[in-house]
């Protein structure tokens, strides 16, 4: 059992060392790792990834053109709907209810569009990414190195204990037999009987 625990402690030390090496490789270039892994497993364009990883004014928003076109389309629908309300309601009063319903749907669509624009902005996601990388590469690495150090010390201490245990057991066993001579045992037995 001692040898099993000894092998287990050195094995866990090896796993922790491998984890520390892997984490240090990741932390040397996290952006490159995320770019390579994401491109290998998805069909996401590198421009989109670069936009979210860098989040600087030098990298343009890849969705900007589509968002601008959508905003113009929503504005155009708003102006056409207002014009329709001005001209159609006096001639067709029954259409007012339908136009109000379309206006409500358009307002909901515009609200959802603004939420989409906010979600597509790189700032929030980039901040979360930077916080996660800092936590992993600074706090996580520090904790892993302390765990590695304490595992090394405990594995060395346990190895020393296992290696010295047979010799210590021999000494203990021989001293115990010397201290328990037959004459002392019989004397103790007589004392015990007389006390009864």
UniProtKB/TrEMBL annotation:
Keywords: Cell membrane, Chloride, Chloride channel, Disulfide bond, Glycoprotein, Ion channel, Ion transport, Membrane, Signal, Transmembrane, Transmembrane helix, Transport. Residues 1-20 form the signal peptide. It is a multi-pass membrane protein. Its main location: membrane. This is Protein tweety homolog. It comes from Chrysemys picta bellii (Western painted turtle). One of its GO terms (biological process) is L-glutamate transmembrane transport. Probable chloride channel. GO terms for molecular function: calcium ion binding; intracellularly calcium-gated chloride channel activity; volume-sensitive chloride channel activity. Homotetramer; disulfide-linked. Homodimer. GO terms for cellular component: chloride channel complex; filopodium membrane; filopodium tip; smooth endoplasmic reticulum membrane; synapse. Belongs to the tweety family. It comes from the Eukaryota. InterPro entries: Tweety. The keyword Mitochondrion does not apply. It catalyses: L-glutamate(out) = L-glutamate(in); chloride(in) = chloride(out).
């Amino acid at each position: 059992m001692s040898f099993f625990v000894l092998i287990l402690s050195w094995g866990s030390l090896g796993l922790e060392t491998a984890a520390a090496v892997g984490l240090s490789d990741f932390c040397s270039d996290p952006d490159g790792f995320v770019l390579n892994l994401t491109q290998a497993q998805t069909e996401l364009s590198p421009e989109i990834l670069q936009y979210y990883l860098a989040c600087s004014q030098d990298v343009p928003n890849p969705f900007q053109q589509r968002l601008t076109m959508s905003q113009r389309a929503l504005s155009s629908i708003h102006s056409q709907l207002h014009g329709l309300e001005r001209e159609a309601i006096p001639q067709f009063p029954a259409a007012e209810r339908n136009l109000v319903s379309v206006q409500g749907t358009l307002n909901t669509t515009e609200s959802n569009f603004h939420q989409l624009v906010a979600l597509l902005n790189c700032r929030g996601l980039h901040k979360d990414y930077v916080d996660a990388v800092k936590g992993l590469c600074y706090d996580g690495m520090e904790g892993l190195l302390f765990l590695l150090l304490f595992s090394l010390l405990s594995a060395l201490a346990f190895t020393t204990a296992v290696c010295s245990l047979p010799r210590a057991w021999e000494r203990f066993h021989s001293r115990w037999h010397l201290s328990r001579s037959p004459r002392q045992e019989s004397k103790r037995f007589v004392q015990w009987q007389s006390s009864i």
